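Data availability excerpt. The first of two example chains:
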Amino acid sequence: MEKNVDENTPLTLLAQSGANNKPKGKMKEEKQPLLDSDLSEYESPHPTHSAVSMENVASFKFDPVLNRDIDHPTSNIDTMIHLLKGNIGTGILAMPDAFKNAGLAVGMVGTLLMGFICTHCMHMLVNCAHELCRRTNRSAMGFSEVAEMAMQLGPAPFQKFSKSVRKLVDIFLCCTQLGFCCVYFVFVAANLHDIIKHYFIDIHVIWYLVMLLFPMILLNWVKELKYLTPASLFASILTCSGLVITFFYMLQGLPNTSSVKAFSSWGQLPLFFGTAIYAFEGIGVVLPLENNMKTPQDFGGWNGVLNTGMVIVASLYTAVGFFGYLKYGDAAKLGSVTLLLPPDDILAQSVRLMMAIAIFLSYSLQFYVPFNVVWPSVKKHLQTDKSIQIGEYATRSILVVITFALAAAVPNLGAVISLVGAFSSSALALIFPPILHIITFWPNKLGKYYWQLYKDLLILLFGIIGFLLGSYVSILNILNPEENE
């Protein structure tokens, strides 16, 4: 029996009514829409209630949050754990080095400011994704899809660049996340090398990379974020434990703040920018995490998952950088504060082991994004289900091997962290979001007197300056490391 639906019926009720009339049976295969390049696969149907006319449907605003169908969604806690692990990695251990390049006062203010700006840019990207989903009746989009659709639906002069911008975002995503993976590989191998060398035998670090390769491949055969939660939780526990012990050492015998510089120098400030933006750049995992949530409406908001997680991240970064630089001063230049802990203390060595295991388990979350950028291009050449299954495992394995090969060639962890941050991370975190926000909401949704436009332009200018100066100084630091000793 049909129900009469007038034009004042809430969209939420219509969406629920349509959902209740779905045929029962096997649920659809789990989607990762924010990680897949095939947009057509995630087009969402209009409300399906038989009494809803097309005129009524057209009068309602499509809400992608209410039209996602995921077999294994993540809870708020799951998402928080993944968000923390996606942002807390080797970067936090390099914060004393970052503070050394900025100075104590400038480093503290700069880190908090960087965290605020990066978090705001994450919100802008999510808002752009939702707005474009409503316009195109899609349930979700990834970073590169947002870039393409913003250009395609934006002002006429930008429309011809839609495909190019999408490819550019994909390139930066792969460079950034694979750069993280390379650093993770070297970090784990170097820490294991030093621990075993101190207590047992000295084996070249390349053999530790080789020994890590097969376990890393197996770990990255896990396909769904839901099943990575236990590993992320364990890694989070190890990271927290390691940071607590690190603070135990850093807070003992602290000198007066006058013993270190409040401001380092203008020449070293770009290195601080590169390291700090590397540490904060978790924008590549924001859309995948939000898309896989059971209650994605809890992701945003002033007390939502994103803000809560990033406040924790910014506080930890600031504390580690502040006390690490205050404790060790100009000696904090090795790229990781754990390398400054007493080598003869078992407790200090346990920190290095904890952090090595935690970073090893965090590799798969960083790997998740570049794989899903590369995989659609490979998948379209495969025809049968068997070939697709084999092809997916082969692609995952090959990408891990590529990061292993690149990791073996990394000469200077600290300088490479700064370069990856200044070049790739700043583009994704500070340059693309304001550009996409302006184009998506142009011209009538940028606030009274276009205040959002001016705000976006300031962020864009900040990102471009950091991109150019940070990349330049980081390259010089790699080519001439002795000049920065």
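And the second chain:
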Amino acid sequence: MSSDEKDSGDELWEKIQKVRNIHKAEVEQETNPSRKKLKSWLNNTFRIKMTDGRILIGMFVCTDADANVILGLTSEFTENGGEERVLGLVMIPGRYIVSIEIDEANLVNAN
């Protein structure tokens, strides 16, 4: 390895460490109550009713600015009581969500 390669590698490492430290500081200083509430819902059971009548029950993984929701270990049910259908990991577009319920009896991250 030449000294030029070593220097560029060291610079890259320093940049990575700087970004990591900035991110860590941002996480530690998180004071937004909405974000805290959202984080408290992670890994909890959600029950989502969709516009087509289906009901999805699964573990909340994440959401985004468009209100899309990702659930893991998800099962699908129909309103008329049809059989359970195991789906696994799903992304539900926000425009198709009618309602969301959280199983508060079993909150994982209760504060």
